[in-house]
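Here is one chain, start to finish.
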Amino acid sequence: MTSQVPILSVKKASKSYPGVRALSDVGLDLYPGEVHALVGENGAGKSTLIRILSGDTQPSDGQLELSGHPVILGSPGEARRNGIVTIFQELMIVPGLSVAENIVLGNEPGFGAGRQIVNRREAERIAREVLRSLNCEHEINPRQLAGTLSTGQKQIVEIARALALKAPIIILDEPTASLSDKEANALLSILRQLRSGGTAILYVSHRLNEVLDLADRITVLRGGQRIATLPSASVEGAQQLIELMVGRPLTELFPPRNAEIGDTVLSVQGLRRKGVFEDIGFEVRSGEVLGFAGLVGAGRTEIMRSIIGADPRDDGRIMKNGRSLDIRHPADAITQGIAYIPEDRKEQGLVTGLSGEENLVMASMADYCRGGVISWRRARAAAADMARKLQFRGQLARPARTNSGGNQQKIVIGKWMLSAADVFIFDEPTRGIDVGAKSEIYRLIQELATRGAAIVVVSSEISELVHLCHRILVVSAGAIQDEIEQPAFDERRILAGAFKGHAAAHMGQGA
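Its structure:
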């Protein structure tokens, strides 16, 4: 790459807002046929840099160059005309238009005086041609309404729009955050194809293993400054990136485990749902953090949803403090002091249109009512007090959807901390949030354990479970395959257990 001229260069870019310096002398080069990843915590300056490159905002100082020539991007339209297309996490898809209309949006082929009449046949031809180049012509119909597509397919339509514009530079902001593993893998395959065709890709993601697998080079931002730019091949795993991002060793991200373990609080015996999981039994004690490891599809989330009554079960017994519980609906679990922090916080954990304050007091609303009338003064005071304890850094009075992923997760956790819950089930508690916010979530989990709560953590990140839990149960093919106690945690043993049931099922099918 040193022999090439960068297609896009950022030269000592700085950006200041009143009281805040979001970027300070940041430099970055992007070459044709390169995937260049940009990583950093929330607040590191990634979003500000993307807004500058997309023409949404102007740098306070510094310069942008395209193929060695200075350029000023005064608007998103000007950025697109200069060959830079940005695909944001919140997709810019018009659901009421067809796929073809979305692909040519802003660049519609036309005929007649001034080309004011859209040539739909030509739009569909362009769409088919672009989708064919992405090997997606059989998966996505150009005449299909865009609103009927999956999230992964909508991502592909946004990329197709960039290709229809013949954009040599594509910027992607957290493109796989809302995708299934299958959709994410399909998208990454398309990005590799684009790279081989010479497209320059700036890729922003919190998924560090994904970044290491895809990117040619990685730039790390911290506190608005560029800390390092490294070839991916020289990076010794995600741990090195994390330490560059946060400026301290990985071990410091995890607080000490709670040392005071009490009596059994939650006991599950013989839990079964045909075809999903079988004979699930475990106990969680006061002050203990119990981890559930396993592959996607192992049945971990289904087990937890069955415990709280969100999904049916065929058999099994759930006990709390030695007393059998009749849980048939999540409301029953809430009444019994069992809190569930779901994997999908936006769809299942929050009412995103309501404020952070309203979400925080939602599970304890009865505490602020008298005679059926809510005292919003008391409710808001309780929400503000909890936000301080959570080290919440967002806008509490604004809709929950406007806050970062880490702050949204704090709202979900705080909602249950304000309730009478003493059993907390966390399903993928740090998915889609940055490393600094992860550290704060770990602190909250250990704080709850120190108070005597019984904690269950489901996570796909083995290192997270190893540093956080007292015990780990390994689930595979709907059954518990292994139980490991700290300090005997062994990542290879955990992985072996995670594959055990799936391997046995595959051999049985082969037989």
